[in-house]
Amino acid sequence: xDFSLLHELCNSHAVSGREEGIRGLVERELKAVGCKVSLDAxxxxxxxxxxxxxxxxMLAGHMDEIGFIVTHIDSNGFLRFQPRGxxxxxTMMSQRVYVHTATKRLLxxxxxxxxxxxxxxxxxxxxxxxxxxxxxxxxEKQVKKLVEIGDPITMxxxxxxxxxxxxxxxxxxxxxxxxMIEALRKLKKHDVDIYAVATVQEEVGIRGAIAASFDIxxxxxxxxxxxxxxxxxxxxxxxxVTKLGEGACIKIQDGATISNPKIVKELKKIAxxxxxxxxxxxxxxxxxxAAGMRQVSGHTAVAGISLALRYxxxxxxxxxxxxxxxCVNLLAAYLSTTKGSGYxxxxxx
Length: 349
Description:
Strand content: 25-35%
Structural class: alpha+beta
Order of helices and strands: HHEEEEEEEHEHEEEHEHEEHEHEEH
CATH class of the largest domain: Alpha Beta
Oligomer: single chain
Number of helices: 9
Largest sheet: 8 strands, mixed
Distance between the termini: 36 Å
Number of strands: 17
CATH topology of the largest domain: Aminopeptidase
Helix content: 25-40%
CATH superfamily of the largest domain: Zn peptidases
């Protein structure tokens, strides 16, 4: 399978609320797979492919990544910042970053107080995001000339192949954008009207999905996002959630949404019939754009097709190539067969 688009998406830079760094690429690709494309004021990109006009299926994959914004410039030129999205401070040590200014992209490094000068008490403390600063290697006067408060900051890391896997930044959730585009590229016929939405601001509160859902009012919402794979040394198998290499993840529930059980059953049946490798996902905490889509009304049935991912919210997020392909095949098969109806829940499922 050709993964060149995934490389382009993951190597783009688009922190929550400042998704302009990827918007043109997504718009181009949605048009290339036959979508009529529109944008809303929040920044969502909506790709529309017409079916029979009777039912609407909304696909939601968020294009924003976790990052930071500049909040202060120290007297010596170092930058202070606040996060946009959830960061584990342990992953921020010795990282390179990009500061996206109005005129250019500046490379910088994340620093903190050197271990050599820490007191014994300080060594015992857990590092916080506020303990870090960004060093642009420039004097204060030049930094203040180039950088403005509110400039976005992203991690400097590109997607790389490691064995049977890909590793890099922002696979969470360029996967979601990639899989819906590749599934639409593969899809030839469908009954339902398809709204492929590259959503914004998911990492700071599923805001794009909520707004788009109220406008579209879908009958079905399928969230396309990553999920936790804890299949690593030191973890108990009961806590794995998912495993790399075991196929597409059919979401049963997460911390924000319980999937419509009829869609779950349908996805599982399709995977079995098409011999698409799959696994069932129950994520104890966290959520996806499905939580935004389900807020529209009781008329919208939601579920998710997830991708197993190790080292979430880091610059070395890791996924398996075969799992990526399985997710495309499952989504395309679902879209080609679903009528987008019959998901009301009675006394029997």
